[in-house]
């Protein structure tokens, strides 16, 4: 069963978009025009480094890759409609910021702190959008 994700819209268009391979996600950053720091997400109200309002910031798409910092399996929904169990993770993105993410699948045994991960698109049940999930990055692609 294959879903063509290219016809779907991102669940959070200000955060990520489908990469050229049709499976991976690129994250959207704003490059601060004053200090050059990458801000994430791109629509943050200001640069966390120098305070520039980022009004003229250039929007940059970078591969959604990072390193697993910590993770925990949730068995109780924290929000209405949240699917459980799910493995919630803190991920150090290559661009610098730490983001909360969700791992694909519910098996913690393949995970470890420091594991390289990448973001992929997963179709949502509504058939119209895709969400961001993280999977181990095996290094097959540069
Ligand atoms: Zn700045």
Task: Offer a few descriptive terms.
0% helix; 142 residues; single chain; binds zinc ion; 6-stranded mixed β-sheet
Description:
By secondary structure, the protein is mainly beta. It has one domain (5-136). The chain is built from no helices and ten strands. It has strands at 9-10, 16-18, 25-31, 38-39, 58-63, 65-74, 86-93, 98-103, 116-123, 129-136. The strands form two sheets. Strands 1-10-9-6-7-8 form a six-stranded mixed sheet, with no helix packed on it. Strands 2, 3, 4 and 5 form a four-stranded antiparallel sheet that branches. The two termini are 27 Å apart. It binds zinc ion. Residues 32, 34-35, 37, 47, 49-50, 52 line the site of zinc ion (ZN).
Question: Short summary of the structure?
Answer:
By secondary structure, the protein is an all-beta fold.
Strand coverage percent: 35-45%
**Total E-strand runs:** 10
Q: Using the CA coordinates, give the radius of gyration.
A: 16 Å
Look at the helices and sheets and give the structural class: mainly beta
Question: What count of helical segments does DSSP give?
Answer: 0
Query: Order of strands across the biggest sheet?
Result: 1-10-9-6-7-8
Mean pLDDT: 90
Number of domains: 1
Instruction: For the record, give the distance between the C-alpha atoms at the N and C termini, rounded to a whole number.
Output: 27 Å
Approximate helicity band:
under 10%
Principal-axes geometry comes out as: globular
Present as ligands are: zinc ion
Would you list the SSEs in sequence order as H and E?
Answer: EEEEEEEEEE
Question: Largest sheet, if any?
Answer: 6 strands, mixed
Provide the low-confidence segments as ranges: none
């Amino acid at each position: 069963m294959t879903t063509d994700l290219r016809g779907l819209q991102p669940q959070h268009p200000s955060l990520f978009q489908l990469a050229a391979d049709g499976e991976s996600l690129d994250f959207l950053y704003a490059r601060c025009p004053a200090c050059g720091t990458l801000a994430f997400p791109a629509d943050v109200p200001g640069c966390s480094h120098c305070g520039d309002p980022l009004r003229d910031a250039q929007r940059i798409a970078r591969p959604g890759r990072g390193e697993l910092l910590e993770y925990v399996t949730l068995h109780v929904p924290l929000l209405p409609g949240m699917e459980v169990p799910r493995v919630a993770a803190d991920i150090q993105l290559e661009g610098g910021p730490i983001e909360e993410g969700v791992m694909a699948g519910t098996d913690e045994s393949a995970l470890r702190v420091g594991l390289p991960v990448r973001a992929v698109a997963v179709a949502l049940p509504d058939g119209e959008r895709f969400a961001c999930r993280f999977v181990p990055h095996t290094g097959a692609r540069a």
